[in-house]
Amino acid sequence: MLNIAPLSYTASKEKAEAFCSSNIALCKYWGKRDEVLNLPTNSSLSISLGKLGTRASICIGESDMLMIGGKPIATQSAEYTRLFTWINSLLGNNRPCLYIHTFSNIPIGAGVASSASSFGAILKAMNSFFGWQLNDSLLAHFARLGSGSAARSLSRGFVYAKAGIDSNGVDFNVITLPQTWSEFRVGILYVSRAKKPVSSRDGMKLTVQTSPTYKGWVEYAENCCDEMIKAIQVKDFTKVGEITERNALTMHGTMMGCSPPLIYMLPKTLEIIQKVQQLRSQGIEAYATVDAGPNVKLVFLKKDEQSIKESFPTCEIISPFESAF
Amino acid sequence: MLNIAPLSYTASKEKAEAFCSSNIALCKYWGKRDEVLNLPTNSSLSISLGKLGTRASICIGESDMLMIGGKPIATQSAEYTRLFTWINSLLGNNRPCLYIHTFSNIPIGAGVASSASSFGAILKAMNSFFGWQLNDSLLAHFARLGSGSAARSLSRGFVYAKAGIDSNGVDFNVITLPQTWSEFRVGILYVSRAKKPVSSRDGMKLTVQTSPTYKGWVEYAENCCDEMIKAIQVKDFTKVGEITERNALTMHGTMMGCSPPLIYMLPKTLEIIQKVQQLRSQGIEAYATVDAGPNVKLVFLKKDEQSIKESFPTCEIISPFESAF
User: Fold this and answer.
1) Which of B270, B271, B273 to mutate to test the interface with A (most CBs of A within 10 A)?
2) Residue B297: domain span
3) Is A10 within a domain?
4) pLDDT, mean of residues A306-310
5) What ipTM was reported for this prediction?
6) Beta strand ranges found along A125-224 (DSSP E)
7) Contacts of A279 (CB under 8 A, 6+ apart)
8) Pick from B161, B147, B165: nearest CA to B33
9) Which of A94, A136, A225, B85 makes an SS bond possible with A43, Cβ 3.0 to 4.6 Å?
10) Is B308 left (phi over 0), alpha (psi -120 to 50) or beta?
11) Are residues A132 and A270 in the same domain?
12) Which of B220, B253, B260 lies at the smallest CB-CB distance from A256?
């Protein structure tokens, strides 16, 4: 464990709010090397989604309460338990009761990293509410305890989460790459907004335990991040795109070998991927990535934005480096 | 190389004909450990498809000629070159010219093992035409030189092709399992009869060279055969089905990690796989398998034949152990 002084649970103000962008991993993390510390087996690298994400607010309440998008969440639900177990791990059991509200403008549990931005925003709100003034490294550590990809949502742009190898996670580290890339675009194509049948946590566990190709994935995924950082440094978009698409397909391929087989993709997911591959042969340089859900995200540059809109009229296009959100 | 006396190329009759069933690998082979000797990296196990396959006829001609389904094949085509290169490797260059006709009642090049039954049938026809009287082991060896899965098409029922490890392939071996299973059914669902964009040979090469999860596949695939033989011995259909489906998905998952990504499946392929998985939750015990193409094959037992017909009205159902074909 990191050597951390106990976190104060005395409110420094009446209410606090914070926003975190969601993020899309271009090099994905799949599998934990420590369930309790929520340490990833492999490093990952993401791009933040600007104004898409979660706003969280926190205040003292008469009992613990979680509201998501204005709806109170049952105390027996998985979301509720997961959140307050995490909060207890940070504040201990003598903490005051808390009202926590989150509002996400992305679908929950559909593979668009809603838990990443939710945990990130709640942590930032708590940091402000309790006046902790935590440094980035501690914020990343605490965020990760809540959701593996939340540490990547604390920052903007390209964010690299280094898995590390230390059993206590002291070398887990989140680095925001200095590069900005104003032409960089992310497109989201919703195939289904339904909640995925197998959570990322359960899917990872199944993959680590049963996929015969998991070992190959881990080695490859680690290498992907190194290659991706180099490609971003020189703004080689073809390389960035190729790594992105292949990384996602290798991850989904690794899941397909699980027992029982784990397939997050739907026929429509595959249809979009193959259409994107076809578009490339026509000179429209877009690449697809898919997380633990059926939705497809595209990466492309500004020059192809119009073509993407024509090919995918429902595509939600994000400019991750847009200044204000 | 096997120590083989030169094969005679003196015709023993005016014309010879032979038929070989196509076969569907329940445990698939993907990747060669020797390109020239066409030795597989991993063992495989198949079920033959009864009356679905290829009839080949051979006679002396004025020049080499290949006709497939009544159509003459261009001498510059890949099929023509592949066939006569193989024949030259068996008979040498002083052989007489040959007319070879094949008639397949399965689509060519669409992942229903048409080359397996074609090479198998041509070899058997040559064996009869030239009066070679080769034993099963030599037939398997020569068939494999033509097509990796052809050795499995020389026999009927469950056929196990042991990859071996010897660099000359002397321990490559094809074993017909003694078990018959009259209730066993194979269903074929054609998604597309178009020729696949990447041949199995090229796809295997790409996978061996570029898939980061290939090593995991090889180890797993070898183990699959051992498990499958045990399951067939005790007629544990659930086990047979589970191994079949997972083996195929692991293979396709391994291909997905290639650079560039290799995806033989089409959206419809995935739709069928997911429908089959859903049917199982309703008590209809069918399992899906997919070869290097978009078509889906199902395995199930006679008791579920009616349900399969209702769920998939276009399904072509085969009884591999039917006596006559």
Assistant:
1) B270
2) 184-318
3) no
4) 98
5) 0.90
6) 158-162, 173-176, 184-189
7) A286, A307, A311
8) B165
9) A225
10) alpha
11) no
12) B253
